[in-house]
């Protein structure tokens, strides 16, 4: 009898075509090569698990901040197929939209982040979950103490502004229209995304 040791290998990933990435992102070939080298140094298998992603987030925020839930939402947003990992291509697509994309691209991504179940609408509960995660990200570095009431007031203010037809959910069209007319809202969203 021969005993076989079955070793479960970690998933590995390598982008297939850098030219395709150049066409589908706002990065040049040399920028992509440099970003990929930095990515591979951090993630030798070419993929990022949620635990590693959360650790990366944790290192970017001030002491006292809790980045775990927000990082979970971002990770889930990128891991559309629920594989448990995200690739360099997934991550570079996000960075491209957030740092070099148009206002429309950035706002569309923010909408998908708040639309936790992916049904095309943001509910009060979804917004409450993400707003709480954003406040947790800021940790002790907020101007005023954050409690459940603070989050509720923020969500109600956002809903008043964004739910233009008052049907209790925010659609992409409502979100895009309201944000494109209010520079303050866009600035606040860019501030939240800036640590990425």
UniProtKB/TrEMBL annotation:
Instruction: Describe the location of the EF-hand domain by residue ranges.
Output: 66-101, 102-137, 150-185
Stored Pfam families: EF-hand_7
Q: Any idea which UniProt keywords this protein has? A: Calcium, Metal-binding, Repeat
Q: Which SUPFAM superfamilies match?
A: EF-hand
Coiled coil ranges:
none
- The UniProt transmembrane annotation reads none
User: What is the recorded name of this protein?
Assistant: EF-hand domain-containing protein
Similarity comment: family membership: Belongs to the recoverin family.
Which PROSITE patterns does this UniProt record tie to the protein?
Answer: EF_HAND_1 (PS00018), EF_HAND_2 (PS50222)
Question: What is the taxonomic lineage of the source species?
Answer: Eukaryota, Metazoa, Ecdysozoa, Arthropoda, Crustacea
Q: What would you give as a GO molecular function for this chain, any one?
A: calcium ion binding
- Gene3D superfamilies attached to this UniProt entry: EF-hand (1.10.238.10)
Question: Which PANTHER family is this protein grouped with?
Answer: CALCIUM BINDING PROTEINS, EF-HAND DOMAIN-CONTAINING PROTEIN
